[in-house]
Amino acid sequence: MKLSKLFAIIALIAVLSLTLLGPVAAESTAPSEVDVPAELAKMRDLLQESMRAYRQGDFDQAHKLSRAAYLDHFELVEIPLRVVNADLTLEMEYRMADLRTKMQAGAPAAEIEESVRSTRDGLLQIEAMYTEVGALVPALAFTGSFTIIFREGLEAVLVIAALLGYLQKAGGGRQSRRYIFLGIGGAVISSVATWLLLRFVLSIAPVGRELLEAIVSLVAVGMLFWVSFWLVSRLDRKRWMEFLNARSWAAMTSGSSLALAGLGFTAVYREGFETALFYEVLLGLSARAEMYVLYGFLAGLAVLSVVAWLILRAGQRMPIQKFMTAAVSVVMLLSVAFMGNAIQELQDTGLLSVTSLVGLMPRLPTAIADFTGIHPTVETLAAQAILLAIYIAGGVLMWWNGRPKSLAANAENNPNVIRGAA
Questions:
Q1: Residue 146: Cβ-neighbour burial (10 angstroms; 0-12, 13-18, 19+)
Q2: Predicted confidence (pLDDT) at residue 288 exceeds the cutoff of 70
Q3: CA-CA distance, 380 to 386, in Å (whole number)?
């Protein structure tokens, strides 16, 4: 009997515990229902507006916006984050408090920008805990990396093939070829050194990182724009080969080994410099997918090695125009992505105004938005649309200019067409 009473008491306690602790359990699970990526995105928008207000001298508004980012949004994220990573939660509180303190003290804009960047880096770290990269960003990173090394490398191979062919016709011996290849090796090493130097300069430059990244991205856009159109690229390569032919003749007549090595260096380093610049920007786009940039580079290098062997050693004729057409299409899309991110970085520094389209268009996940450059602001989308429109208009114009020539060629090859037209 006593045992049954004991069981009854235990059952009563269990029922009371479930009744009393039920709301507590519901409250403890509520934070997991917070849309962390959405709250972090709103924080980034407020920090962007805050930086813009600070550069315009409205310190009070800048402080209010940064405070709203913390109170209205980070405090919602803080509850589930504290369970996952208490140290990062505390670190973010310090970073945001430091930002508000500097704003109240009227610190220079460069210091505020550095604090905003530090806070934004923390937000990306938090978002990585609550979102998956998925398959799209790695695929885009791999494709972009493969295309860059293959396109730039293929153009270098074509230049080398033409250069060696010219030397052979001009009577250049095996020794001349040896010095040419020494120069090519030096160009490859110098290209890697250029990339490392570029990374070092970006890390120590006294200018804000966003501004530097925006400048590098805009330079990359300009270079990608230049090499994108097949006709422009072809005309440029023609002038480039005329220059190399003149240099080849001067080097051979002088008999200088240094001149021949410099010729090989010049032929390749131009492509290597472009490659170093493009990969620096691509790595900035490929957050959490950097290894796929490496995989794409290695795969492109492997395919390029086979193609180079077929062209230089086996003397095979390759469908170069098809390769270049496919590569240029990807390069154009990459330049559009670079443009969007360059404008976004200028907005992050407060140097450009922000006209938000949040609520009017869906916001892409951060990883995809960073790679494609598609951000919900009028300025970024307008810049991308203008660049894309130029590409489309240029492609249509080139097609239109080539159309009468093809019709004339068909007419010459078909006498019946001429009679019919007469």
A1: buried
A2: yes
A3: 10
Higher pLDDT, 55 or 15: 55
Rounded-to-integer distance, Cα 350 and Cα 257, Å? 53
Alpha-carbon distance of 141 to 163, in angstroms, equals: 33
Tokens of 115: 């604090």
* Terminal alpha carbon distance of the chain: 119
Under a CB-based contact definition with an 8 Å cutoff, are residues 328 and 232 in contact?
no
Q: Quickly tell me which residue has 């938005």 as its tokens.
A: 369
Tokens of 372: 């494609």
Tell me what pLDDT residue 207 has: 60
Whether the Cβ atoms of residue 353 and residue 239 lie closer than 8 Å to each other = no
Q: How confident is the model at residue 369 (pLDDT cuts 50, 70, 90)?
A: confident
Q: Which amino acid is at 245?
A: N
Indicate the Cα dihedral angle 19, 20, 24, 27, nearest 10°: 50
Contacts 24+ apart (CB under 8 A), 288-294: 288/128, 288/133, 288/137, 288/367, 289/133, 289/137, 289/138, 289/141, 289/367, 289/371, 290/141, 292/137, 292/138, 292/139, 292/141, 292/142, 292/145, 293/141, 293/142, 293/144, 293/145, 294/145
pLDDT tens readout for residues 208-230? 677 778 888 888 888 887 766 65
CB 244 within 8 A of CB 267: yes
Q: What is the pTM of this model?
A: 0.70
